[in-house]
Structure to design on (227 residues):
């Protein structure tokens, strides 16, 4: 299983916190400038997997900018490894907030109907382990909404080499992983998801790929499998 060295991870966390401090200073959280992007994303989600009133929804690694501010009639929870310092910057009032790592979610099995993982997967220590945890806390048939930057061809190869060398040197990088669309599809399948068709939401970065994936039912022994 691939993993980022702890010192690389800690430096990345420092960079993420600096980003959120700037975000709070400039008062960019929960603004009308952000709203059109979130609404475009939710329009796409609604078209593929409509929301039901009362859903339990988890937003992982969202920092100060959670999609839960734009989803009515759900029970929302956010989780972030930087939750303690983020709480001092002003968190959303529409959700409950928890501290914890992506790879060790502090929730019971099948706790949620839907999970959002927005621009997070290329930031984490262990992508595979984290996606397995997402599958664990989602009910069978639950939905993972994932967006992540993806690359192809020569650009993909160059960025993978660059990030690999940064990890080897222990350099600071907020995005230690580089993915292609097939990379993400394979990781989702291994974790127990039907990946769904990759797409792009207008208003987001051109390279940002969007997946709405369904959790496969789990057999009696507890390991995810295809129906």
């Amino acid at each position: 299983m691939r993993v980022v060295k702890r010192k690389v991870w800690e430096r990345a966390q420092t960079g993420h916190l600096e980003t959120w401090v700037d975000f709070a200073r400039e008062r960019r959280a929960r603004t009308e400038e952000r709203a059109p992007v979130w609404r475009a994303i939710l329009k796409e989600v609604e078209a593929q997997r409509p929301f039901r009133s009362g859903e339990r929804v988890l937003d992982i690694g969202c920092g100060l900018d959670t999609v839960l501010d734009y989803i009515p009639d759900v029970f929302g929870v956010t989780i972030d490894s930087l939750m303690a310092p983020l709480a001092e910057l002003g968190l959303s009032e529409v959700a409950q907030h928890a501290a914890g790592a992506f790879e060790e979610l502090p929730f019971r099995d099948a706790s949620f109907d839907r999970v959002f993982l927005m621009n997070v997967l290329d930031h984490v220590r262990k992508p595979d382990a984290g996606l397995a945890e997402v599958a664990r806390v989602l009910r069978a048939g639950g939905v993972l909404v994932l967006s992540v930057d993806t690359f192809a061809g020569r650009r993909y190869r160059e960025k993978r080499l660059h990030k690999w060398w940064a990890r080897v040197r222990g350099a600071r990088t907020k995005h230690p992983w580089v993915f292609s669309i097939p990379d993400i599809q394979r990781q989702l399948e291994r974790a127990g998801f039907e990946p769904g068709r990759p797409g792009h939401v207008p208003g987001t970065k051109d390279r940002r790929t969007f997946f709405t994936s369904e959790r496969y039912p789990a057999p009696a022994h507890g390991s995810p499998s295809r129906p």
About this structure: Helices lie at 6-25, 35-48, 83-87, 127-137, 153-169, 181-191.
